[in-house]
């Protein structure tokens, strides 16, 4: 659902995938290979929202601002399910964990990681490679090379997803019985990506 607001019409690169149940309104610019999941609300009515190449905004996220503010997600920013970004700047290759809240005028430096359920108060500024957790959120340590490598690989899956969605995604009727299969979904997914806990054990 893409909507004009006053004179502003969203600008969305053709390689991006915006789920039909997401809502993009007004002064919004979305770059290449961006994924926006169902239930996301990206509302550029009072200010501008810029989502750079290779970002993902997952299911039920909200991006908004106070009047006159620009929200920017720099390249490869990864916004987890249910997160809220309000008037903030998210640096390149950052990860914002699920159901986190990032308040007004917050600036995350490049390659920061914000833990799930964290709440960052307005006007906080974090240097690059900060690991940030809690409510109110604080930096607890530096993001390691190992952590950012894991994050980057996860984001690469989302950068491939828009093309796959354009190619394979379609409405369908559900099956009524489970089909025979020779390999499990779990086994297939493990070849693509390992969770953080799994990588730490291996």
From TrEMBL:
Question: Which SUPFAM superfamilies would you find in this protein's record?
Answer: Trimeric LpxA-like enzymes
Q: Which protein are we looking at?
A: Phenylacetic acid degradation protein
Q: What species is this protein from?
A: Sediminibacterium goheungense
Traced from the root, the source organism's taxonomic lineage reads: Bacteria, Pseudomonadati, Bacteroidota, Chitinophagia, Chitinophagales
